Amino acid sequence: MKSILFVCLGNICRSPLAEGIARKMFEQRGLHVKLDSAGTGSWHIGEAPCPDSIKVAKLHDIDISSLRARQVCLKDEKKFDFIIAMDENNRKDLLALGIKNPLKLGDFGFKGEDVPDPYYYKDFEGFEKIFQMISTSLDVFIEKKYYL
After folding, report:
1. 2-143 has which CATH code?
2. Does the pLDDT of residue 120 top 80, yes or no?
3. Looking at residues 10-39, what average pLDDT do you find?
4. How far, rounded to the nearest angstrom, does the alpha carbon of residue 48 sit from its chain's CA centroid?
5. CA–CA separation, 23 vs 26, rounded Å?
6. Helices 51-59 and 14-28 meet at what angle, rounded to 10?
7. Catalytic residue numbers?
8. Looking at residue 122, what is its pLDDT?
9. Within 10 A of 42 (CB to CB), how many other CB atoms are there?
10. Using CB atoms within 10 A as the burial measure, which of 48, 67, 107, 125 is most buried?
11. Stated pTM of the model
């Protein structure tokens, strides 16, 4: 079984959304993939995703409320076939940690564009935009069978 780890800064906005969206997409296609998410920072360890991430996921029939933030570690490289960062800073943090060849989600359907942190948007619309961007990227990742 293939495995994917999604990584953002604090593991409370983008990466839990990516985990939840991916879980739904793989399940809908009858595909079995181990999924997880983590953050490069440690300050949210043990916390649930932020309320707006939970809300936008729920609007799309995805429940991420039981997920809890954790920090990525070098051992994750051995546990996961793919480690996918949400933006270039996250990717650089993974490289600095010693993880070889982390991918960036925006490389799938967005020509390398960063998935921006919705935490800094002034309204809920930013979370919907991020949800759609993650969904599009994951659709490309799955349809082109990059996970194989």
Report:
1. 3.40.50.2300
2. no
3. 97
4. 14
5. 5
6. 20
7. 8, 14, 117
8. 75
9. 12
10. 67
11. 0.97
